[in-house]
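Quick one, tokens below. Sequence please?
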């Protein structure tokens, strides 16, 4: 039983979405990873979205590139929060993905993060914050993660002269 579902439209998206996995591991958040395509496996995508809540997921992180329909299609089929990660595309460098995910019609929200690795990491942190509303262990993990970033930032400037 996992709190966060990480889905991506293609296995080639794993290069970016691995950042989501890594942060969730660091934060000790339970997750599952799946490849589900809005275009190649639409029925499986709908089945996943419609059963996500009953499968005890709390948040869905959906990474997609190009036309990037996956986050929006999942959001249209579940009441769970969906965080969209725009995966960089070959020709438009992820701008197509970003615009596709962020321009959802009223009533079908997808929380959208930045393109690529930073967005994938931020999606994991945002999902953890959502889950931490009901899980104090996640809140403690977030506090430790934030303190580690703080300390690393301070340490990085100590040898400047």
């Amino acid at each position: 039983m996992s709190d966060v579902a990480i889905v991506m439209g293609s296995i080639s998206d794993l290069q970016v979405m691995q950042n989501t996995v890594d942060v969730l591991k660091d934060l000790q958040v339970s997750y599952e990873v799946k490849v589900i395509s809005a275009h190649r496996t639409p029925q499986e995508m709908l089945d996943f979205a419609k059963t996500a809540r009953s499968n005890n997921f709390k948040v869905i992180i959906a990474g997609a590139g190009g036309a990037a329909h996956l986050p929006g299609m999942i959001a249209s089929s579940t009441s769970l929060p969906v965080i969209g990660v725009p995966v960089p595309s070959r020709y438009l460098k992820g701008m197509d993905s970003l615009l596709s995910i962020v321009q959802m019609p009223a009533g079908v929200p997808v929380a959208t993060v930045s393109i690529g690795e930073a967005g994938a990491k931020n999606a994991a942190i945002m999902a953890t914050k959502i889950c931490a509303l009901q899980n104090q262990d996640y809140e403690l993990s977030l506090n430790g993660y934030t303190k580690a970033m703080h300390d690393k930032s301070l340490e990085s400037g100590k040898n400047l002269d």
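Strands lie at 4-8, 31-35, 59-65, 82-87, 111-112. The mean pLDDT is 95.
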